[in-house]
Design goal:
The longest helix has 26 residues. This protein has one domain. It has a two-stranded antiparallel ribbon. It contains six helices and two strands, in the order ααααββαα. About 65% of the residues lie in helices and about 0% in strands. The protein starts with a helix and ends with a helix. A hairpin with a 5-residue loop joins β1 and β2.
Length: about 170
């Protein structure tokens, strides 16, 4: 365990700036790169759970397309000049002066593209006669036992008390 800790610290010092760039923190790095898959997964979850016409091909599009859209938007600043987007705050210059789309904006754009793509694919496949296999949701699935309810309220109360005491 000590060896792993020392090795991790050494690698962070050596590789940290090369991976994250100057001024970025580890959490920013994690957020940015989980943002490559999370918009598509979120779109797939929302439409798959709340819109019964969603097809499996639409879900597959969101998974793969979300990643592809994220990669394209991440590196679009190197492929073209995005300075025109800075007037509407959709692009900011990085340390090298290259305009790029911030990861939160990039995630929003990818999410919207995935939702639009899923809707188009699902509507097209529904017209062709493909019947989506939607989830059958039973309200019994969401019933809570009294023990679960009491313990949940206790945990929420303790968390709120800790926030009030230490914030």
């Amino acid at each position: 365990m000590v060896v792993s800790l020392l090795l991790g610290t050494l690698l962070a010092l050596i590789v940290g700036d090369a991976l994250m760039g100057e001024g970025k923190q580890g959490f920013q790095y994690i957020q940015e790169y989980t943002g490559f898959v999370s918009p598509g997964i979120f779109a797939m979850f929302l439409l798959g759970f709340f819109w019964k016409k969603t097809t499996s091909n639409a879900a597959l599009f969101a998974t793969i397309g979300g990643f592809v859209f994220s990669v394209i938007l991440k590196f679009s600043g190197q492929l073209m000049d995005l300075e025109f987007l800075s007037t509407i705050n959709f692009a900011v210059p990085n340390a090298q002066g290259v305009y790029e789309i911030p990861f939160m904006d990039r995630m929003s754009i990818v999410f919207l593209l995935c939702v639009i793509g899923m809707i188009i694919i699902s509507l097209y496949e529904n017209k062709k006669g493909i019947v989506p296999k939607g989830l059958e949701i039973d309200v019994k699935m969401f019933r809570m036992s009294p023990t679960f309810l009491i313990l949940s309220l206790l945990i929420i109360g303790l968390t709120a008390a800790l926030y009030l005491a230490f914030w």
